[in-house]
Every structure is written in structure tokens, then in C-alpha cells.
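Collaborator request log, item 7. Partner lab (contact: R.S.) asked for a structural prediction of Alpha-mannosidase to inform their binding assays.
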Amino acid sequence: MTQLGKIHLIGNAHLDPVWLWQWQEGYGEIKATFRSALDRLKEYPEFVFTRSCAAYYAWIEENAPDMFEEIKVRVAEGRWVIVGGWWIQPDCNLPSGESFARHGLYGQRYFQEKFGVMAKVGYNVDSFGHNGMLPQLLKKSGMDYYVFMRPEKHEKELEQNLFWWESEDGSRVLTFRLSDNYSTSWGAPFEDKVVSHGLMADHDGHAHMTFYGVGNHGGGPTIGNLEVIQELQEKFGKDRIVISTPNQYFAEIESTQPELPVLKDELQMHAVGCYSTHSESKENNRRAEHRLLNAEKFASAANVLLGLKYPNEQLKLAWENVLFNQFHDIMGGCSIREAFQDARESYGEALHIAAKALNAATQRISWSINTMKPEVSALSKDKNWMSWEQGDLGTPFVVFNPLSWEVEVPVHANRRMTSVTDESGNPVPMQTIRASRTNGHDNWDTLFIAQVPAMGYRVYWCYLTKENQSVPVDMPVIAEGNVLENAFLRVEFNTNSGTIKRMIDKRTNTDVLDGPGALPVIIDEHHSDTWGHGLHSYRDLIGYFADAEVKVLEHGPLRGILRVTSRYNGSTLRQDFTLHHHASELQVNVQLEWREKHKMLKLSFPVAVEQAESVSEIPYGYIQRETNGREVPGQQWFDVYGQSRETGELRGLAILNTGKYAYDVMGSEARLTVVRSPIFADHYGVRDDQVEYMDQGLQEFSYALVPHGGSWQESGIVRKAYELNVQPIGVWETYHEGPLPQLMEGIQIGADQVVATAFKQAEDGDGWIVRCYETSGAPVETEIVVPLLGRTWRASFGKCEIKTFFIPSHSSEPVQEVNLIEVH
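Returned to partner:
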């Protein structure tokens, strides 16, 4: 008889709530699948069912309460096993670090509240790749183990399918890669699959897991599956063929303490095209993540300072929308067109909830600032229909900074002013700029440079007619012909192609680029399906945007803008290259009218360094990757650095973005992936005249080029990327008494490399949560101060460590470190 190693049979139902169908169909299929699993539990006393995704359980609770009560009973008796611990099985590269924290926070707390258990096994059997920070994110969400399937063996070779997976901070989870798929509805016959896995287990010297059950569109274990299992158990013995769960499997493995390899790497990659499909949903994801965090920060401040009710339930609903849309077939861009229309609605709800919460909080704070002046007796709009200014007293404009460090940023105020001062009456530099409106002669706005405290605010006074003492700018921005220049950079453009001809870093007197920069290259991708299955890169160059027009859009002491408009076939690319007088980076606001099919647009930046290396942001961390031209996922920034040819010193170029998630680096050439236009949900299917293509029409985003000497850590790249993505918030005010001062700081962190990303009400409502992470890969100890709570404490951060602090409402109780699910 064939000698088999031990097999743990895992009864599951892989169920995509959205893919080739909309969520409403997935909703119904979840009910039917859960009913089927409950039927199997009645029919087969030894059967055990494994199920993840808190969102599915919430749907059952809402729509089939009797079945929900049945599930509770089965969970309590140990025959329905909860795994995953997250809201959904998300794409595991594109969500932010804080989104992964929220998957655990809302998923695990839901399971604990409803079933009295939390998942111990992380579970993403269909996600397309897994970022290298997941071990820490899993451990700090209460999970010690991980199960995945992709990348499969032909996509990433591993020493063996069972191993310790370690993230940069040293966190480890015991991890198992499925030997093949999670389903019995496709692939080899079930019996052959079990025997094959048994032979692997015998060879490896430890047990394996085999997943069974009809999947993708639900279904789960069938009567036929269980009859085959009975036959296999009779043939090979119940000690070899065991009906089991992932929990049971990992507990058994740990009890035997086998020698296992340690992998310290990301788990990539199944489908390289998923990180550039459907630009709209990806851009909405980035916006929603940041807006929700901004809303939480100022809702917390407004509650502490002024008693404004914290909108916990509304914000939780918005987060659940965002987390659901991070499902791997939505976030990965490989669903049908109708599914993305649904995602647009869902993101819209989340964004609007966040906008309302943010507005309520900032306006409650701004209305409570003492802006009264002795000359004012009552409010009256005698002077101007748009402004409450009386005489030459000015109008208060409150600028809020959601970031955890002081920022010096340009602020756009939508009125034309003659002067602007800070709260102490000191004039600040300003510039008249074009407004977005064309209302008679009322088409001008004001730009000024603000310095705003960390997670705080500052009042600036804007004057309609009063000429305050002007503030000279040491090095006004030059915008002439085809040149932008300030104290830090000189950027020259090719007038025919519209590309950057030279980008001189004046601090080192060196050219940042080694050829045309911001070069729009067209890549052929007819050979790619929506996912990019079987591909490693997109580099089949077939053309360029050309026929460029370069014109000066704006010139002034604070800001200069050159608009470059170029064309390819029926598509138009408009890039507004913007240089501010105080900044050492070139910001680019892009408007793209895209009409191509089976093509991709990349922006190329050949960086003038030798022995180039590349590093990219990943969720709550970073990773270094080979410069081999592979298409890879990134988040808010990636950096290419190496040795200067002139001096041999270390230097580089960071490329930041507001909503793009894919790039490649070949040698020292960096390419930001802007857009691609495959067919919706095309898995190398029939391509006829009725198919529809992605990303047709208008889209907008921003990117920035940050040249630097030294390392990316020394150059503050992480902060600059956040500043590009998180803009200041401005609120017009009027004259009123109030308990708050005109300048307030919300947080102080002693170490530059530590960023606070979240400040929210604790889930138990009896305190506050501050979450920070170390960004540069170096241990540090720092002091953290939250003035509005009257709290100060010290914390030690390891390399890339995430720390969550619970600050009790009662000041007599100490600040405590908790995990991501806010458990001590």
C-alpha cells in the first residue's frame, strides 16, 4: 500500500463576494453556502467547517438571524471554526498599514463579540501576493499562523510549503502554503489530490493540509466530498486522513517542534497587472484611507476639547466600506464593470461620512477659537458679500494639519486678498493665483505659505484691502519659457517632447537625470489579461506621447507652474509641473484623457546614479527590491539611489504619488505606472467588439520628484510622501469669543523617524488610541506628548515596529501599550 504522510482535511468554501458578479449575488450565495455547511454538520457527525471573513457573518446576522444562531451553536461546540480574523480576504499589497490594522480591529472584535472567540490563523488563500510586514500585522492582531496559496510554486520557489515567515521587525508567524488550490470544483480529482498531498507529507516529514469544497462562487463541502473522505479513511486509516481545521493543524505542528526554514521576504507574486488596473477605485482607496484618519484625529480633538460627540458608529461603517472594497478582486481590479460601479458608490458613502465627521470636528474647533477683536460689536456683511471682514480687521482663516509633525505648506484660500498675517500679526508671503471659477472679475484666489503645528491648527488673518508690510522672498520662483527654478532646483524642459531635459540639484550642482525625465512611454499589453497572469513585466515599448506644448501657467514669488500638454493617438496628457519657493521637490498635477486599448502608460525617469538600488513603501514599512524591470506594487513612494558619477557619493530620486500603486526599475531607470486598459475581467477570453475596456476617459492624480543626497531615510522621504497625500484643511471663520487659542499643537514626537498615523477613540469608549510606527529601519527611543490629553510618555521602537498606545480617560491611570485590536 502507498505510504502517506498525515493529511489534515480542511472543509471550506472559498467565496468571492464580488468578482464575475456583483455583491448582491455574493450576499445571496453566502447565505446558501452557510446553509449548506450547516446541513453537512447535521448529516456527518465528524465533519468540521472552516470559515473566514467577518463581513459575511455580518450579512448573515442581518438577513438570516435564525441561521446566525445555528452558527453560534456550532462555533461553541468547535465544529464551525473561525479563521482569518479580518473583515474580508483583501488584496495584501495595496491597502495601507492602517487598513490592515482595521481589518484586525473590526474583524477580531466582531468575532469576539458575537461568538466569544478570536481567530488564531491568518487566512488569505486567494490573495495575489503578501507584503513583507504581514507577520507583525498578524501577530499584533492576535494571529500566530498564516495560510495562503499564491504565489504558487511556479511563481515563487520556497524551500518547503511550511515555514516561519518573519517581517523586518522580527515578528514571526508559522505559515503554510497550499500545495495546490483551495477547491474541489477544479483541478485534479479529490482522491488524487489527497493521495498526492499525502506523498508530499511523507517526503517532507510533517503533516500537510488539503482544502476541499466547491469554491469561488461558494458551495463548500459536498455530500460527494464527504463520501470520498470516508473511502480514503477506510483505505489509509483515520490516523492518516483526518477531518481537521487550520487551528488543529498548526497546534499539532508546533507540538512536534520540527526544524523549519525561516523566510524573511515578501511573498510575491501571482499577477503583476493587478496593481495598475482600475485607477478610480485605487485612487478612491487612498483618499478614503487618509480622509478617515483625518476625521478621527480631529473628531477626537473636538471631543476632548469641546465635548463634541465622537461619531464612532458612522466612522466604523465608513471603514467597513473601505475594507470591503479592499477585497482582492475589487482592489486587484479584476472584477466586472458593474462591480466597480458598486465600489464607486461604496467609496462615495465612506468618503462622505468622513467628510461630514471632519467638517463637524474642524468647524466645532474653529468656532470655539477666540477670534474676537475689540472694534467688533456685532457681525455684519457691510463690506463684502463673501467676507465677514469689518473695516481693515481681516478675516480669520483656520488651517488644520492632520500630520504628526509641523508642516510648512502652501495653502490655497479661495478669495483674493491684499495681505495675510499669522495670529501674531506677522505678515506671511502670499501670491495671487487663478481660481477655478469664472464669475465675472471674481476669478482670483490667494496662495500663502503656512507653518502649522503637528495634529493642530493655526489661525491666519486674511485682508481684503489692507496692505500689510510685504514679506520679501529670498529666492522667488522663476518660471520663464521652458525653465522652472528656485533656490534648490533648476528644471529645464524640452519644448518639442515636453520632457524634462535637465533637473539640476543646486545643492550639489549635479544633474539628477540621465536622459529625458517624465517621459510618457506607451507599452503594448495585448498579450496580457486583466490580471497580468504569467507575466513579470510590462516593457514592450511601442510609442511616446509627443506633439508637446509647453507654456508658463503661473509665475510668482511663491510658486511657478509650467503646463506641458502632449498627445498620443486620441489621448491627451496634461502635466502641471509646480515648484514652490521653499521646497526641494517638483510637484506634478496630472490630468489624463486616456482612450487607448490594451496599452499602458508609464512615466520614465532615468536616474543619474551607478550601482542603482531601489526601495519602496509597503504597509507600515518598506522593502528593497532588485532593479530588474519587474512590475511590482508600491504605495506612496519609491526611491532609486546609488553612487554619483561625479563624486561617488550616495544620492537618489524619490518618486511620490497620490493614488498609483505600481512601478518598475530597470537598472537606474524608474518607471511609474500611470494607467493600463485591459478588458474588464478578461482571463484570456474571447475578445470581440462587445468587450469593454478599463480606464477610458478622464483621470487626475499627482506625483512629486524628490532629489536627495545621502539615504532616503536622511532625506525625509516618508514625511514628504505623507505631505503630498494629506493636504492641510482650511476653514473660513468670523469674529467670536471662544475658549481656544489661535495656535494649538496636538502631538509632539521627539524622533523624526516615528510617525503617528492614528488618533482615535478607543473601542471601549473609555480612552484614546494613538498608533505610531518606526519608518527608517533603526531602533529608537522617543518621548511622545499629547498636550490636549495632558499626557507624556516614553517609548522604545524596534526596527519598523508598530506600537499602539491606550490612553485612559482618567489621568490617574497610566498609558499602556496594546495590540492592534486594542487588547492589553
